[in-house]
Design goal:
This protein is α/β, with parallel strands linked by helices. The protein is built from eleven helices and ten strands.
Length: 292
């Protein structure tokens, strides 16, 4: 792969997925895209680049999906789900008692483990949500992972990663060597393809937004832009949940951290808060692949 081809692919990936590769990740692109090129009957990276420049929509989608790592598991990192059960939902239930409805967005839902973990948390609340209208919207860039999420079928290895055995037995049915989450929980989730770089105003407003382990792979200006747009999609008393390595601090005043609750944020009053401008100089480059 020539330096020119690599620079083209770096820009292509940033423009189409937000992925911001450092200058020394040629090996990563080659390891992901050479198999894709061969599968498509192409001679190598050079011909792949030519096809992308020609505007092949199918190939554009395939390249973005090949370069996006969908690392996820049930109740990943545990702490956000403790916050959801012990802090977020009690406040939401109190605040929404009159309308008896709650809307939740998983902004990088991947293969479904995060939204299904939230659905299980909600089911465990039992009578507290009887008669409530609950919506969980799970979005992802990749149509392939969304199809897996819709099916709700997981391997033995996948259900052993973070899923308590009592919940496995309660909410899943074994099918051969795999496990499928029950229809009631599958019906709680709406799966939609969405690129966070694009407009998402059509999704409406939410009481809770989970946007974990994806923004860390974007450059600073992109993060600021997404945070500011997320602020327009969240209720004034809603909650934003980020990954352990993510923060709004130093980027935007549209959200404020909740003390002693890592990864949990509240929106600021938009009349009093304004986004901070991007810092001068080049945005920092990330050296890892996008994960969820």
């Amino acid at each position: 792969m020539t330096p020119t081809e690599y620079e083209y692919l770096r820009k292509f990936l940033k423009d189409n997925s937000g992925l911001d590769l450092s200058a020394d990740k040629q090996y990563l692109i080659e390891s992901r895209l050479l198999p894709l090129a061969r599968k498509a009957g192409l001679s190598g990276i050079a011909e792949l680049v030519q096809k992308l420049q020609g505007g092949s929509r199918t190939l554009i989608t395939d390249v973005v999906e090949a370069m996006t790592t969908n690392e996820t598991f049930f109740f990943r990192d545990k702490v956000p789900f403790d916050h959801f059960r012990d802090h977020i939902m009690p406040e939401v239930i109190k605040a929404r008692a009159a309308r008896r409805s709650v809307r939740i967005w998983c902004a990088a839902g991947s293969t479904g483990q995060e939204p299904y973990s939230l659905a299980m948390c909600l089911k465990e609340m039992g009578a507290a949500l009887t008669g409530w209208r609950v919506e969980i919207i799970a979005t992802d860039l990749s149509q392939e992972v969304l199809e897996k999420a819709k099916a709700g079928i997981y391997s033995q290895f996948e259900v052993q990663r973070g899923l308590p055995i009592q919940m496995l037995m309660k909410y899943f049915k074994q099918i051969g060597e795999t496990w499928q989450i029950n229809p009631e929980l599958r019906a709680m989730i709406q799966h939609r393809q969405l690129n966070l770089l694009h407009d998402f105003a059509q999704l409406g407003t939410f009481d809770v937004i989970f946007c974990r382990n994806v923004l860390i792979y974007f450059d600073q200006d992109t993060k600021i832009n997404i945070f500011n747009r997320l602020a327009r999609q969240i209720e004034p008393d809603g909650f934003l949940v980020l990954g352990a390595a993510e923060t709004v601090v130093g980027l935007t005043d549209t959200f404020r951290p909740i003390p002693e609750r890592r990864g949990l944020y509240k929106p600021n009053d938009p009349r009093a808060a304004a986004a901070k401008p991007a810092l001068a100089g080049a945005a920092p480059r990330m050296a890892v692949m996008a994960g969820r």
